[in-house]
Amino acid sequence: MALLESLGTGKPIGEARDRDLPLVVRHFYHHAGWAQLMGTEMGGWKPLGVVAAVVTWNSPLLPLVWKICPALAMGNTVVLVPPPRAPLSALLLAELGAQAGLPPGVLNVLTGEGALAEGLAAHPGVDAVAVAGSVE
What residue stretches are annotated with the Aldehyde dehydrogenase domain (predicted)? Predict the structure, then answer.
């Protein structure tokens, strides 16, 4: 994951490995706790449905995780649009999710240019939009 983040963004591999990946792991653990407590401690919380997560930054790994972890933990389907020039981390994350047992269609990745994210955000089947980066 650190290597793909470095190749996709130009970030030093040491920064991706030593700073970003430990934070990614913490986010997954934290939000796994949300999923476990949703029925007992988070009364009244219901899944929204389909959440579009759009990441426009060129350092996508952490913003990706910030957007998808809470949505998945609360039982939503996520359609993730990574930065057009740095989709590798998102694609690997989706593959790892499938290997971990996420049902097909729960975590989806769409790669492409800005118009793709704009169209997804306006789609009537999308119930919520989470954006990391420029809101343009």
Answer: 2-135
